Amino acid sequence: MSKHPTIAEHLKASGVSRRSFLQLCGTLMATAPFGLALTGKKSVLQIADAIGKTKRPSVIWLHFQDCTGCTETLLRTSAPDVAHLILDVISLDYHETLMAASGAQAEAALHSAIAENAGKYVLVVEGAIPTKDDGIYYEMGGRPGVQVLREVAAQAAAVIAIGSCASWGGVPSADPNPTGAMGVSSVVSGKPIVNLPGCPPNPYNLLAVVLEYVTMGKLPAMDEFGRPLFAYERVIHENCPRRAHFDAGRFAYAFGDEGHRKGWCLYKLGCKGPVTHAACSTRHFNEIPGVWPIGLGIPCVGCTEKSVVWRMSTVETVPIHLATPPDTYPPIYSSAGQLKVGAAALVGVIAGAVGGATWVASQRFQSSQEAGVARVIADRTHAEKLKLSSENQTPKKED
Amino acid sequence: MAITRRELFTTVAKAGVPAAVALTVGSKALQAEEIPVPSAAVGLLYDASICIGCKACEAACAEANNTPEDISGDQLHQAPTDLNELTRNIIKLYKPEDGSPYSFVKRQCMQCLDPACAAGCPFQALHKNPETGIVSWTADKCIGCRYCTITCPYHIPRFQWQGYNPRVTKCELCSDRLEKGLKPGCTSVCPTGAVIYGPRTVLLAEAKQRIKNHPGRYYQERIYGETDNGGTQALYLSRVPFEKLGLPELGTESVPARTLRWQRRLYQYFALPALLYAGLVQVIRTSLKGHEDEAHEREKETGLRAQL
Amino acid sequence: MSSTTIANASADQSRWERAVPVYGFPVVNRFFLGLVAMTLLAFILTAYRELAGLGPVSGMNDAFGWGIWKTFNVMVLTALGSGAFAVGIAAWVFRRKRLHALMRMALLTSFLAYACGLLLLGIDAGRPWNFYWIVFPWKWNMHSPLAEVAICMSIYAMVPLAIENIPPVLERLWYFDSRLRPGVERFERRLHYFFPWIIAAAYLLPGMHQSSLGALMLLAGERVHPLWQTPWLPFLYLGAATFMSFGCVAGTTMLCCVVWKRAMDMEVLDEAARITAWLIFGWMGWRLLDILFRGALGTAFHFDRFAGVFWLEMILIGVGGWMLRRSLRTHETRIMFLGYIFSSLGGMIYRFSPTTLAFRPNPESLYFPSTIEILVSLGFISMGIAGFLLIVKRFAILPAPLYEWHDMASYFRFRRPYIRWTGYFKYGHFGENESETTDSH
């Protein structure tokens, strides 16, 4: 067998059944039915053909400030065969977690992997790269990670930053970011970089990008953040299976309440689906439908977005930028107006005041008895006054 | 000097009450209150039995009129519960509790042949186009009195309650689209053809044809708006009673004709008021003379200046 | 001038012979300051309303487009302020001479009520800058009752009513400075020449717009409850305005006399009460007959709020009318006063109902005024009351017996210290300085 066998040759030599391989190709097709040249509008057999003819790609995988979750996502497939299958399709020439070597042997393995596949290997970076204080917060073999990354990336054909940490800094870059953690694109320049944010991202995104690159010779179309469009063009909200509940206004308001148990929309619990670009709502994890955060009743935290996760509170609701009509109908007569207690009280006070004033005023009117007596007295007094004034009256001037 | 009641009445009577009565009651224009149908009257025919409640017409109306989305309900969904300053057209659902047939209804301006809104508008801000019959609102003439919101029997015109430059909003049959030869927004997107646009005569004929083709399907085999409220240009067909859909049974007389008949008669040509004025002037002249004479006498008696 | 004339005058001690300014009571007291404060508050809130729109300041909504500003301050208060119309017609057209004593009170209360109503009409309009169309008669929609109301009310308040309120001002000017007298007298003669035309307009115009206020709700048709909605609505509104305004004028006059210790002329008040009682019973009869003939009487016996309001109105008006008639027999001023109050209150509720209490646009909606709405309404009413208090103390408006006219010449001229009410009058004697010129003393 040649030093660099085609994938088909290698699979045959490894004893992988054609059925498993075709299943993998089917999954790949479901990953990106339209967005990739490799899988767009092709049948499974056509994809298998294309992949089978290609030489097995060499992949070098570097870890930096990571939790190894992105590696785990590659391996934690629901059936162990698939993990093996993935590792048969790509040639993972250097991977610190998976390889047996350590220490000086590991370093040697890295150098030989680079030398053998110079200019042809795909560099996958996992984890953020600390840049503060000359990058001393991560050292590999005694050398700062920044340096190592630049050296290895210099000879790579393409760089794939897997996970949010490698894409834009991830967890280590959360405030106050004491290590100056940054994504690959802030450290490496001059090489095509594909960002696959997520915490962790779906492994089939990685597989699809790698295979697309090696079979078709070019990277998939990307957005302004370097994220492939086939997986990161839409927000979770647009394809969410619970969207009907959102549109109908059926929300879970507390974990474990009736709405939550019935699987209603988690928007009110702080789901960041409307602002998070990712494909999780259509491609779930571990090859089991329904295994993804929202499907399990956990609101999306927006793990792919730098401005969302670690920046917004998980319970904070996000604004919706595309309003659409829901599926409820208004009744024939709608209600309007409300009785405000303050205003009603004011009206009561005024009515009371006016009534009271009227009563008091009416009391000052004399009853006829009193009026009769008072009139007699008043008449007498006024008669006296008139007499007084008539005595003092000056002669009247004629007009 | 005091006038007797008899003298008063005879004065006024002689002054020409007969003439006034002849003027008001006998005038031809008021004898038969016939409402003219505009020459190029256009309208809508909405068949509630075909409507599926998709609300495409609501979205199309907002787009055709360039109004922003109405998310006033919960700030989340474009879900108006009724017409308002952003919503000219709305789909409502009549769903009885007892399981009898439900129906959607599309509510928008009925473009009445004798609109009550225009009859009440003080400075003719709401005006019925004499050719197309479309009732439209002009911002320049509106004083924001909201009388139209009270007089319209269908409760269609809506006033903008926020802001210092409020407007009155209602469907105007997308008149700017009509000028370009397009159809109104709602009718151009209806997927089932529940609402269609056309000249009123054509729509009436179509509706009658439908009634004939499907006997027993439509409520009372009747088109709402043919003569209701004196006739409207938005016509309705329905399976369920029209009242259940919020379309009141108003009879064949238009609201203004029925309620303002005497108002119009009494003020016709301003004859009666003018006559009354003339009579009053005469009476007061005499009273004033007597009053002034008495006042001067009192002035002499008391030595104090007369108060009128 | 013989003393016999004065002795004859003393025979009817409390006849209201003359309007006399209310002297001895300062204008600025706690009550007045309170009213001014309410007015200022209303102005501030009005400024807010102009900027924020009608929604945030009021309880008006899509179903109830009219709130208390139009329905209370315009419809109800101008009815109370129809005194110039009702009392005037009784005095000038039907020649009830005794009622002339009340004319100035009637004119003043009418003017203030209309000022308040028109201001609120302007505040209530959503786009008031377009009111200028009022100047172009060919733009008016003559079929619209609201156009009729707005135009007629404006013309009435600004022309005939204002002109009729000028004589007290002229009177004060005449006394104030004798150099003005020739001009004042010339102006008065000119005015008197036109008076028949002005007064006739002052009766025609309110007749028109008070009935048009009733016609407004005709267009609402079935949405006004049948106990109120009738083709006779304009006529009933006009009738209510007449007895309400009598109540307002006579009641206010009685209240003023009691508060400021003036004698009441029972002949005038009895005459007014008699007329009011006739108006009330005539009006009630007309309304009940109309309800009977329309077959709506059954609805008065349902147990709902409409029947409740109906009976409240009718009972208040009926009891008011009965009290008036009783007070005529027993000469009890308290009963007469309460009779006026009750009948006016009932009339106010009647005029208020068709737009709010008896208006059912929609089974699900309701209207209740917001606090700001109520405060603005109250504030402008306070302005009217404060204006009344000020004017009544500075000009000769309130009727009084002849002997109250103590040296009013000096009072008008601020020449002597204000006369304090002590029961005896230290300064000035009856009719002194009546025709003095400025440069004596």
Shape of chain B: elongated
Low-pLDDT segments, ≥5 res of chain C: 1-11, 422-427
Strand portion of chain C, in percent?
Answer: under 5%
Between the first and last Cα atoms of chain B, what is the distance in angstroms?
18 Å
Average pLDDT reading of chain C: 88
Q: Sheet with the most strands of chain B?
A: 3 strands, mixed
What structural class do the secondary elements of chain C suggest?
Answer: mainly alpha
Helix fraction of chain B?
A: 25-40%
Strand arrangement, largest sheet of chain C? 1-2
Q: Structural class from helices and strands of chain B?
A: alpha+beta
Q: Count interface residues per chain for the largest interface.
A: B-C, 72 and 79 residues
Major sheet of chain C, described briefly? 2 strands, antiparallel
**Could you say which overall geometry of chain C the principal axes of the C-alpha atoms support?**
globular
| Measured distance between first and last alpha carbons of chain C | 23 Å
Helical content of chain C, roughly? 55-70%
Note the total helix count of chain B. 12
Oligomer: heterotrimer
Mean pLDDT of chain B: 87
Q: How many strands in all of chain B? A: 9
Supply the key terms.
heterotrimer; A: 399 residues; alpha/beta; five-stranded parallel β-sheet; two-stranded antiparallel sheet; disordered C terminus; C: 441 residues; mainly alpha; 2 strands; disordered N terminus
